[in-house]
Amino acid sequence: MESTSTSNERADSGQENIDANINKEGHCWKELKKFFDSDKWRWTLGLIYIVAVAGIWIAASYIVQSVVDSGVSPFLITYICNSLFVIYIPIVEISRYFEDSITKLLLSFNEQKGCEMSVQDSADLESVNLLQATDSCRVQEPKGEVIEGADGGEDKGLLDSKRRWTRTRMAKVSILICPFWFFAQLTFNLSLKYTTVTSNTILSSTSSLFTFLVALFFLGEKFTWIKLGSVLMCMAGTIIVSLADSNSKSNAIATNPLLGDILTLLSAGLYAIYITLIRKKLPDDKEGKGEASTAQFLGFLGLFNMLFFLPVVLVLHFARIEPFHRLTWQQVSLIIGKGLLDNVLSDYLWAKAIHLTTTTVATAGLTIQVPIAAVVDSITGHAPHLLDYVGAAAVLVGFAGINIPSDSCSGVKYEESAEEELEGQEIVMAGEDVQRPTDRQPSDVS
């Protein structure tokens, strides 16, 4: 008897340990899921995207410069690379087709399973209860449509049944942003014909300056004196780099540095407008305005780019200013490779980074390119001028000040977010106390 009792105690103890381990694993999984859903993780992921984009843009700048030096028009490079965005359209449509198909199968399976469970639970009751269970299963579908569809008259016709933006709505946003994006790319590529990659990179980084100013007026970004001083520091660095390029005679690769610097600054301003429009016109999923697909937006951007600027390309071809037959296979390969890596991939990551962080912080990632470009230029025999380093340092200091997290990633924000989350949980718990079981039945089945 004692041995039997001891065995039972050991079995109970082992079961308790197993249960404790299961609870511990479940708690760890919940904490991990909570972290990945938190603002801190979104911010970290956005910074990872920014670093990846910076590396891609540096490599793409050297590719563009080599192709332009070989005689290819910057306009043609811009047109081909931007048109490659169109590959996102079939990708999005195919993925949504499979997503909708899987959702329908799961919904059908859950409805069937829910009906069977309702019938089994009410098997000992009379026909009245069976009729109530059947009615409950039948009313699930219209309730699901109300939940998945638009919330009110404001969103009617703008969202599909899954609260995703319709194609028409996304196309309207893309057609608005398309010109700013194309000319930002064109002036950037054209500037590489006249100035060095280092100068182009440093001055392109001033897009953060323009973005801050635009966001200040149109997005309501918080103003601080530190950021104002940082803006002035960026302007001083820009002027220093421009003066260094205008006085430099050593870099043969920079045929007209001042013109190249002006084109780069123009490109930076257009970039600022472009990303501000993205942040304003494409809401974050957490804002509750529906799911706006970044890939679908870029796909329409490429489509409109292809259609709007095709007449210009044809004129250049038939006027023998930029005929297609002059392109070599090596040039075509470099252009397409640059378009897929730099435009299709990096711009998708950058657009996601804008939503995960802020417009100003996203453009601040450009500063990472400055030291990389200077090192590569030095290795290739085009060492930057001493004033370029001084200007780059001023720009970097300015960006550090611009991106001091006043309310984006500060502790205050996370404390407020935690308080809001706690209040939300209390409201949900309070709501569950007064909620009837029949009110939760449709969601339990689905």
Automatic annotation (TrEMBL):
It is found in: Membrane. Residues 433-446 have a biased composition (Basic and acidic residues). It is a multi-pass membrane protein. It comes from the Eukaryota. GO terms for cellular component: membrane. The chain crosses the membrane at residues 43-64, 76-98, 170-190, 202-219, 226-244, 256-277, 297-319. Keywords: Membrane, Transmembrane, Transmembrane helix, Transport. One of its GO terms (molecular function) is transmembrane transporter activity. Residues 425-446 are annotated as: Disordered. Belongs to the SLC35F solute transporter family. This is Solute carrier family 35 member F5. It comes from Rhynchospora breviuscula.
